Amino acid sequence: MTNPLFYAKIILFGEYGMIEDSQGLVVPYSFYKGTLKFSETGSEFEKKSNIHLQKYAEYLENLVLMNDFILDIERFKADILNGLFFDSNIPQGYGVGSSGALVAAIFEKYSIKKHNPENISKDNLKNLKNVFGEMESYFHGKSSGMDPLICYMNLPILIENKENMDKVAIPKGEEGKGAIFLIDSGITGETGPMIQIFFEKMKTEGFRKTLKEEFIRYNNACIDTFLKKDMNPFFRNLKKLSHWAYEHFRPMIPESIFNIWKKGLDSNAYYLKLCGSGGGGYILGFTKDYEKAEKMLDGFHKEVIYRF
Length: 308
Hints:
The chain folds into 2 domains: about 5-165, Ribosomal Protein S5, domain 2; about 180-305, GHMP kinase, C-terminal domain (Alpha-Beta Plaits), CATH 3.30.70.890. About 45% of the residues lie in helices and about 20% in strands. The protein has helices spanning about 45-60, 75-80, 100-110, 120-140, 145-155, 190-200, 205-225, 230-250, 260-265, 290-295, and strands spanning about 5-15, 25-40, 85-90, 155-160, 165, 180-185, 270-275, 280-285, 300-305. The radius of gyration is 20 Å and the shape is globular.
């Protein structure tokens, strides 16, 4: 039997805000994917991945997980000795869940009790997210568990707050003029340092206040209007959200993106926001007229992920 594929994920809304109890909307992205395989060629990539898995197995061995979510580490270690590696085209440091897909793949293959993503209850979803958070903390220092959860479920998830989340239906995409797209900043980002910057900012009362009173309000309004496909108020709130990030998330915006971020706000042709923690990797773009935005963003590599 071939191993299942685990897709990348994109946080459409809620980056950083979810740490402070904002809503979040996270969707799978099937352009990038990964799967566990046994090495046949012994290539450099396969060897490197295998060594990473060895180190990760040592970490997992010392992890105490809830009863329903215990992993068969001995089988995992035996497979690693037989050349197991993670065959993935998900770019690392791009905010699309490279470690999340790996965690989901390992959990699916080695959890002693099998879980069917389609039948997971709301309560178990929360438990699973917590387990994934512990498993993924190896890669980022601290993880919410959201990335692996999305990769594992392969369904859009609406995070209502820290305690509540549920599967959600995204409005069906159609071939309209509008689009949500990714822009490649040309550099990789590291999640850990960006999160450190955020927590430093959170120490100042002014930042905490504007995050709670403005960012979270615009973010939640974007999710609400997007899910209702109410595009005019959606873009109104999106502009406020993009402008807020330009003012307050400056260290997280890659230098190569500064000017085009401002250009979008000034022209109203498109609006940009962080995709994940920022610092590099992908930036998310939203536009009512992709053809126009594409011309204005000439020279940047772009990928359309949703049409409307």
